[in-house]
Specification:
Helix content: 25-40%
Shape: globular
Largest sheet: 5 strands, mixed
CATH class of one domain: Mainly Beta
Radius of gyration: 28 Å
CATH topology of one domain: Immunoglobulin-like
CATH superfamily of one domain: Cupredoxins -  blue copper proteins
Number of helices: 1
CATH architecture of one domain: Sandwich
Strand content: 25-35%
Oligomer: single chain
Bound molecules: copper (II) ion
Mean pLDDT: 76
Distance between the termini: 78 Å
Strand order of the largest sheet: 3-9-8-5-6
Order of helices and strands: HEEEEEEEEE
Low-confidence stretches: 18-56
Length: 140
């Protein structure tokens, strides 16, 4: 009887030691996990940014700068909202999608959200103030 108690006690101790060891290694693990998920979050943000600008902040989907659009070829899902930024410090531009209702004024150094409410297809866009600023919008 006495021996059995001692065995139980020893077993309990072993469990305690194992548990605390597991806990501390679990802490290490979660620290590593945090770093991993932070990196993962970064990757997620990067992959979201070109897609839609839904979260706000970050890079605009389209920029007007140096009297040209960047990029000049843009692909957007129908119904998505894109962020268009005028990077010029003092020159107004427009984001005008030819033969559609989309005709946004872009004040200098400002950005606007533009909902792409267009059927899938390929559209030309331009700045009506500087008609040499053109690009191609593909709606999917
Ligand atoms: Cu312009």
């Amino acid at each position: 009887m006495r021996r059995r108690l001692w065995v139980l006690f020893a077993a309990g101790l072993a469990v305690l030691v194992l548990t605390s060891a597991a806990c501390s290694s679990g802490d290490d693990g979660s620290t590593g996990g945090g770093a991993t998920s932070a990196a993962g979050g970064g990757e997620t943000q990067t992959s979201e940014a070109p897609t839609g600008g839904g979260g706000g902040g970050g890079e605009p989907d389209l920029k007007a700068e140096d009297f040209q659009f960047e990029p000049t070829e843009l692909s957007v899902a129908s119904g998505d909202t894109i962020v268009v930024k005028n990077d010029a410090p003092s020159t107004p531009h427009t984001f005008t999608v030819t033969d559609t209702d989309i005709d946004e004024s872009l004040d200098p150094d400002a950005e606007v959200d533009v909902k792409i409410d267009l059927d899938p297809g390929t559209y030309d866009f331009m700045c009506t103030i500087h008609p040499q600023m053109t690009g191609t919008l593909t709606v999917t």
